[in-house]
Structures are given as structure tokens and as C-alpha cells.
Amino acid sequence: MTENKKPEWLEKIIEERIIILFKLANEFLDKNEKRSKRYIQLSRKIATRHRMKLPKKLKRNFCKKCNILFTDKNTIKRKNNQINKIIFKCKKCDY
Ligand SMILES: [Zn+2]
For residues 78 and 87, what is the distance between their CA atoms, to the nearest angstrom? Predict the structure, then answer.
């Protein structure tokens, strides 16, 4: 298997785009939920297309099923003691 390594500058541009989309998603979350979800969807698409992983800090910030950005209001936080991690549960789709 050969690994296509992208130049660093390109990865930076893609990552920046993803971060911008997440910011937009955050802005529209209250005003227009549908649009907000679209932004998350789009950023995931960009990442997939470029075979890049979403930045770590963003990865856990949205629901992988319905693409909604997680906030304190729409999630239930649960501590999983077995793996010592906080698990987010989406209130919207119960995922
Ligand atoms: Zn969800």
C-alpha cells in the first residue's frame, strides 16, 4: 500500500476550511439548524475527499449520525468509567 502524502501547506488549507465550516455551523445552530447541519456534512465530505481525518478537537464535537453540532443543550454527557472517557449522547437522534 502506498501512502499519498499531501504537502503540509495543502493539509493546512484543508484543515482551515474545515474549521471555518465548523465555525459557521456554530453560528447557525440557533438560527437555522438545517443549515448548520449542512456545514458539518460539508466539512466531513471535504475531509473524506482528501482522505484526511477531522482535527481531533472537532471530531468529537458533533453527532456522527445526524451531523448536529454538540452543545450543552442537545447532548447528554456520560462518563464511561471503563474507558475513562466522557461519552456524548445526542438528544436529537438518540445516537
Ligand atoms: Zn444525532
Answer: 5
